Amino acid sequence: MITQSVSLDHFQSSWSDEPGYEQLLVNRIHHSGELIELPVARIRGAQPGPFLTVMSGMHAGEYSGILAAQKLISTVDPMELSGTLIVIPVISTRAFMERNMQLSPIDQKEVHFIRPGNSNGTYSDLLIDTLFEVVKNSDYLIDSHAGEMAQALMPWVPIPIKGSKNLIENSLSLARGFDVKYIEPRSDEASIPPFCLALLEEGISNIWVECGKNGVPTPKNIATHLEGYIAAMQTLDMIDGEPARPPQEVLKGRRYQINANMSGVWHPAVNEGEIVESGQYLGRMTDYFGNTLEEFHAPQRSLVLYYWSSPAINVNRRPFGYDWHSGLVSLLDLES
Asked: SS3 of 193, please?
């Protein structure tokens, strides 16, 4: 298969009108001279139907979704597909090739929390704007995430809940096919990433999937992503088959985070997916010699969504105010 490189301006006109599989590298140049390169695969079905986008690698060290997206490309037969499937396996190729975690290696921004529309901003602003331009004609979108090297994460599916009843129900239907213990509908706008809000405002039902830990793409986690994509496509009548509907519990509660107050060495005492009781010991911070600087306890009964498994904690590194490097435990308050 020949990969064609095109500018964003010529992206829409580059596709064939015939059923089949095509792959493009969508390019855009930032005013700094840095290249944005977005790999986009399109599978156009032999029959009409909805437009689904599956994307991964927004955080370049979250590998389970990236490998599942690649498998999806090779799994779907255009002649057995109704509608159009776009797959973007790696959103930030620059971050991916630099083995970078969480923040952009160009401008140190957290791309999941950038709203599209600022093409004159930093590199990450233009990257997210480019991504939105590519996916904005979708009817549905699945965004795959996973725990990076420093993050031991519990599999779950957050669902942005905003907009019309139909939009909300369609988003929920995408989540129901993923084999995870929990789904988390989020209606508090502050808890929904701006990119997801922009999708909803465009009328695109969407979810993001958290499945994977410590940057290790296990066969099980890759399969959870891939089988969830397949179930979503079956739900949308894009491919034949009855969609999987594994048992799931609905999470409700306020998310909050335990952060370090000083730099040092983190010794966690919890596991992802564990329910901790009020006052339960979560771990401690030490200096380089192992002397305890501070201990941490759960303020209320909570579910551990993930914890930072990396011992290195740097409270002074806060690019754009982002507290990724001082985070210790991410929790969901089960009492509220």
From this structure: coil
Evaluate the CA torsion angle 74, 141, 334, 255 in order and state its sign: positive
Phi and psi for 179 in degrees, rounded to 5? -85, 75
Q: In the chain, which ranges are E strands?
A: 4-7, 20-29, 35-44, 47-56, 82-88, 140-145, 151-153, 156-160, 182-186, 205-210, 249-250, 254-259, 264-268, 275-276, 281-286, 292-297, 302-308, 312-313, 327-333
DSSP assignment of 287-312: -TTS-EEEEEE-SSSEEEEEEE--SE
CA 205 from centre of chain: 15
The amino acid occupying position 312 is A
Q: pLDDT tens digits for 164-175?
A: 999 999 999 999
- Please tell me the predicted confidence (pLDDT) of residue 5: 85
Exposure class string for 175-205: b at 16+ Cβ within 10 A, else e: bbbbbbebbbbbeeeeebbebbbbbbeeebb
DSSP per-residue codes, 194-211:
HHHHHHHHTT-EEEEEE-
- In the chain the domains, ranked by start, together with CATH numbers, are 4-250 (3.40.630.10), 254-333 (2.40.50.100)
Is the CB of residue 112 less than 8 Å from the CB of residue 59? yes
How far, in whole angstroms, is CA 157 from its chain's centroid?
10
Contact 174, 205 (CB under 8 A): yes
Residue 221: CB atoms within 10 A of its CB come to: 22
Beta-carbon-side half-sphere exposure of residue 14 (alpha carbons within 13 Å): 20
**Cα(80)–Cα(239) distance, integer angstroms:** 6
CB neighbour list of residue 301: distance below 8 Å, 6 or more residues apart: 275, 276, 277, 278, 333, 334, 335
What pLDDT digit, counting tens, does each position of 259-282 carry?
Answer: 999 999 999 999 999 999 999 999
Q: Does residue 232 contact residue 239 with C-beta atoms inside 8 Å? A: no
Residue among 169, 164, 180, 176 at smallest CA distance from 234: 176
Look at residue 1 in the predicted model and tell me its pLDDT. Answer: 63
Contact 96, 63 (CB under 8 A): no
Percent of the chain with pLDDT over 90: 88
Joined together, the tokens standing for residue 98 give 């630099």
